Amino acid sequence: MFTGIVTDMGEVRALDQAGDLRARIGCHYDMESVDIGASIACDGVCLTVIAKGADWFDVEISAETVSKTSIGRNSWHIGRRLNLERALKVGDELGGHIVSGHVDGVAEIVAMHDEGDSTRFTFRAPEALAKYIAPKGSVALNGTSLTVNEVEGTTFGVNIIPHTKAATTWGAAQPGDPVNLEIDTLARYVARLQEWNA
């Protein structure tokens, strides 16, 4: 489990397609404290550490994960910056919201404009997921816990403050970029209960 509070920006250093996709990700974590088999969210995708060095770790990414995330839209390339978050430990501060690292689909940035020092982003969600997104609810976008401002059909907006732009990959985002979307777990269960009772 994760919180959607990004704790490092990593960088894709190598990609190798041999069976599953293998990626080497550079980071600033103290890798002595990261065990083989640990989970790290990479742009919101929960991946397992299979090898590590002083300032990097390797992950294997299944074809299923590639097909359901922005990785399958060729958004990962050598030099690509990634939002990273290590898994929660018991007693950690829950600063964002409960995030599983299981991406539900890929949204797209359709517009951006500055509002004061912040930037208002508008996203288009896949139609099947739009019903789970509500004003003032939470979403995880590329592993970042964000609050939804407004929703209209399949589009929704969020504000990203200067700190978030500086501490994550959002400072380099552009319209047209694919974005990993994880809907709020509570919204998923509320919708399921409504379907069950219908």
UniProtKB/TrEMBL annotation:
EC number: 2.5.1.9
Protein keywords: Repeat, Riboflavin biosynthesis, Transferase
KW Mitochondrion (keyword) present: no
SUPFAM superfamilies membership: Riboflavin synthase domain-like
Pathway given in the UniProt record: Cofactor biosynthesis; riboflavin biosynthesis; riboflavin from 2-hydroxy-3-oxobutyl phosphate and 5-amino-6-(D-ribitylamino)uracil: step 2/2
Coiled coil, from the record: none
One Pfam family hit: Lum_binding
Entry annotated with the keyword Repeat: yes
BP GO annotations: riboflavin biosynthetic process
Top EC category: transferase
Lumazine-binding repeats (start-end): 1-97, 98-194
Cross-referenced NCBIfam families: PRK09289.1 (NF006767), PRK13020.1 (NF009566), ribE (TIGR00187)
Role of this protein: Catalyzes the dismutation of two molecules of 6,7-dimethyl-8-ribityllumazine, resulting in the formation of riboflavin and 5-amino-6-(D-ribitylamino)uracil.
Identification of the protein by name: Riboflavin synthase
Organism whose genome encodes this protein: Paenirhodobacter huangdaonensis
